[in-house]
Every structure is written in structure tokens, then in C-alpha cells.
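New here. Your pick:
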Amino acid sequence: MTEYGMLINGKWTTTRKSSPVLSPATEETIATVPIADDRTINAALEAAKKAQRDWGRRTGVERGNVLRKWADLVDQNRDRLARLLSQEEGKPLSEAHGELDLGNSWFRYYAEFDRRIEGEILAADKPNEQLWIFRQPVGVVVGIIPWNYPMGVAVRKIAPALIAGNAIVLKPHEDTPLSALELGKLANEAGVPPGVVNIITGPGETVGAALVRSPIPGLITFTGSVETGKAIARSAADNVTLVSLELGGKAPFIVMDDCNLEEAVKTAVFSRFMNCGQVCICNERTYVHKRVAKEFTERFVAEVQKLKVGNPLQAGTQIGPKVNRQELEKVEGYVQRAVKAGAKVATGGQRKTGRGFSKGYWYEPTVLTDVRQDMEIMQKEIFGPVVPIMEFSDFEQGLSYANDSRYGLAAYLFSNDVHRIMRAIRDLEFGELYINRGPGESVHGFHSGWKQSGTNGDDGRHGLEHYLRKKTVYLRYQG
């Protein structure tokens, strides 16, 4: 077991209180981390505020070189970091390596903006004047990240914040803080100046709330649940602090009768069960055209039954445990209430038991049929290894079911009809569409939700925009 500190102003700091970090596979304590108090929260914010001025005055090339060095160090520690990530979050080791590589690609991608943060020169209305628009850092960024991708999302926030010239105070989720803290150790090696990156730990209800109430941050960027995002927005409003929210999802997976059914089945399984279904863009509800519904469902259930559940550190494991007991009980409750409302369990439907599963937070890969659109299981985010399958009669009904949600993050469509594809692109009310393929963003794309799935967004040049603010200058000179 390792005792961690928090990274504040380049130094490792502890407090009187600490909390254990449990392995979701074994329930064993693998580390302890401090619980930040008012003193350390304020110290982190003040350190960031002080350090940002000099960091923001460095050239983009200087900042980019630090990010490149940091990325090199992550590569050098890849296997060690992936194993730690798998231990604290519960995802299979192969997926942990994938998360690490994706996260590290944000360091390298945003380092490329070292010469690409540009201003504008506009034609002036008056003679002997210049009109300029500068882009400058927002100052201090507060990043609050979830437990499902603790390494990847940490870099997703840190890299654009730093290349834009900001300092950041990062708060990882209390269940999975170790990946971010290990990144912090590498930050010092990479040459990040003290105070530019600060990482503090503790519950969102106290530590996170204190961060968003502070007048110091110029931006709060949050990835997590809808209800927490709403609370953050309300608190930030008192200081008129800019907020970027990437919230929950209830992604529909639409299967048309003209598609490659084998590919649709394969992709639908992967899109639901990666990371034990704990992904905001996962296939949360599968809609299948009535002409192929029986065949699709039979094939789908057969593939789900082949999935290997087990020790996330063991080769060949495809599904690990839920991240904590509360999440396990939440998923269990969704299934029980769905069955009570009339749904049928095609496979799974209970906690995983037997040898190797007496400890930890295990749930069987589950498929539900005979569901209705108005059921809770079709409307609320499950965030676990459970998928309901529902038939529809025609394309218009499929689109209607898909859009019947308060969420608008991601959606999937399998069809070979270009006219249907174009209509879906026009009419689906989601910020991210995957057509004839599975999930996975590109670092230069734009990951943003519609409706209650968020505001602003991450990735690419559009994801960089809210880390910068504009300053307009009217300059008169002697003619």
C-alpha cells in the first residue's frame, strides 16, 4: 500500500485526514490519499494564480516543449501506469493501455498548437487606427474529472489548459485519484513550473464544491453526471465563471434491416460492454428494425454470453468489475425494476458469483428484451454492463425513439442506405454520431453534447477555445 500526497505548488502535501483507495476487483486497499481541507484548497488555487502569470508569458514553443517532454515520460512509464490504472478503476489491462495511449495523444496534439494560437487584425473604421483581437489565457482552470477514465480525462483537461498559458487545479474522483497523482509526479520531471499544475484529492461534495465556489478560477471544466454538472453551473454563476460541462449520455444504437448484421452485432456488443459499460458514449439502448430483430437479438445474446468476466490484470479478460459498491447496487436496481415492469432477461441479470467473485463489485453482462420506450431502463443512464433491446417498425420511428431522451451526447446508426444516413445526420439530436462503426473520438475532432449532455466540449481546436479569452485593442497612431 502506498501513501500519496497532493501536488500543490510543486510539492507533495498531506492533511490530517486521508481516505483509502480500493481495488474494485478485490476490495483491498491499494493506497491512501489525503482529503483536502480549506487550507490546502486555497493554497492550490493561490499557487495556480501566482504561477500562471509567468507561465502565460512564456512562448507557445516553450510550453509545447514541456508537454512533449511530459508525453515522453508517460510513454516510458506506460506499463506501470496502465497496471495502476487497471487496479484502481477495474478495467481490463488491455483497455488501460488504450486509455493511456489516447490520453497521451492529447499531450502531443495540443503541443502542436505552440505556434497556432493566433489573433486577428481587422480593418479599422477610422483613419490611422489598428483593430486587433488577441487570444489570451483565462487564468486559472479548475478541472474536475470522473472515475471511468481517470488517466485519459486528466490529460484531456491538462494539455489544452497548459498550451493556452493557463495554470490548473485538478481534482480527480475520490475512487480513482492515483492515475492523476502519478501524472503529477511526471509533471515535475517534465519541467512544469511549480504551481502550474496542482492536483488535490477528496470528495466532490466538499472539495469540488469549494473549488467551484472560489472567485479565482477563470474556467471550470467538468466531466461527470448531469446533476453534478447542474450544481456546478449554479455555484459558478455567483462569480460568473465560465463553465464547460461534458455530462451523461443515453446513446441509442439503431440497426436498420439493410445493414451488415454481423458487423452490427459485433459493434453493438463492443459499444455496450467496453469498460464494463461505464462510458458516457456507450450503447445504452439498442433499437432494431422488426425485420431483423429476431436474428440480431439471437446473435447478440450469443456474443454477450461469450464475454470473459474476470481479473482485469489477467490476459484475455474483457469485462472487469463495477467501480464501487454504490454503482453495482445502482445497476442491480435498474435491472430489478425493469423486470418488475415487464422486461425479460435474455442473459445475465444478476451479480456475478462463484470462484474469484466473492469479493469485488461484479455484475453479469445482461441483455433485456420486451422493453418499452417509457420504461426507466430506456430513459435513465445505466452506466453498466446492461443493455435493453427494442424493436421498431420503420426508420422514422427509429429516429423518434432515439431522440426521445433528455440526453444528446452520442448516437449510432448501422445502415447502408445513403439517404437514411443523410437524414439521420440531419435529424438526430446528438453532438456525436457513429455511423457503421463503433465508439472512439479522435483527438482533433470535437466531443460535445446537446441537450442535458453538456455545454462547450472537449478535443480539437474547438475544445481549446474556452481555455482562451479574447481581448480587443483599438490602437491609434500619428498619421
